[in-house]
Amino acid sequence: DANVCIYGESGTGKELIARAVHTASPRAQRPLVTLDCTAIPEGLMEAQLFGHVKGAFTGAVDHRDGVFSMAHTGTLFMDELCELSLPLQAKLLRVIQTREFSKVGSSKPISTNIRLVTATNKNLKHAVDRGAFREDLYYRVAVIMIEVPPLRERREDIPILVRHFLRTLSQVYRKPIQGIASGAMDRIVSSPWP
Questions:
Q1: What tens digit of pLDDT does each residue of 159-177 get?
Q2: 3-state secondary structure the chain
């Protein structure tokens, strides 16, 4: 049930690892809710996290649950955690510590029971050193740290991935693909994979 932080370059499969962590956990039959921190404008992020009550702000025409409510008893996966502003980081830290939050526009506390899995393509330790990420939050989210090396550093995985995608595309396009020429595989494996 410990919080997990997954670190790696964009495209390394952090979300797949987050899903695997959830699937292998005792919470596997409970919800897995994903939040991409880069996809929500900062002004709406607090309502996205905690929900809001009707009339809390302009445009809040009804009550809405946030991801903490939706993920209750399950896993909340927050992708690109480093994109949260420092004030939102403080609010997230409080929720992690107290297991309670309030919807925007309400003072009524709501209990939450989630497992937090986060991901980032930035080195959190360096972000802490630069003052861009709270040190106390770092120690709360990075209880278990998983570093995902880029594909160029794990070339032995490339043939496995190629075979997987060939099988998938063969099924999607209903084309019998038997395999890949060794020269083509060599070229794929030796690609620089920036």
A1: 999 999 999 999 999 999 8
A2: CCCEEEEECCCCCHHHHHHHHHHCCCCCCCCEEEEECCCCCHHHHHHHHHEECCCCCCCCCCCEECHHHHCCCCEEEEECHHHCCHHHHHHHHHHHHHCEECCECCCCCEECCCEEEEEECCCHHHHHHCCCCCHHHHHHHCCEEEEECCHHHCHHHHHHHHHHHHHHHHHHCCCCCCCCCHHHHHHHHCCCCC
